[in-house]
Amino acid sequence: MKEILTFDFCDMTIYDNYILVIIKEGVNVIPKHNDVLVEVTNTYFVDKPFVYITHRINSYSVDPKVYFKTSKIKNLKGFAVVSNNFQAKKNAQIEQRFFNKPFKIFTKLSDAFTWADNLVK
Questions:
Q1: Domains by residue range for the chain, with CATH
Q2: Where on the tree of life does the source sit, at the highest rank (predicted)?
Q3: pTM higher than 0.85, yes or no?
Q4: Phi, psi of 113 (to 5 degrees)
């Protein structure tokens, strides 16, 4: 399965074992954005494990409160950040503290995809 969803704050691509999200430039990700994620996962991953992968190619910020709610998604098995940007990786290291499930930082999408596939199996 591969389906692309577009929202005002991000683009999501749904795969069998993971969701790939690209947040748009300048967005401040807040809990109401997370509500969209929950709706999407309830639609595409009903009782099926998945991994959230964010490809940080744009500059944006994340309210840490988002991670508390995200980590409560029962079938969410892990969270991956993919970026070549030093500051995005440093931010992800801080965000990692607010998430209580597997959380990895990658420089290549292919590595994140492999990790996600292995995590849900």
A1: 3-120 (3.30.750.24)
A2: Bacteria
A3: yes
A4: -65, -45
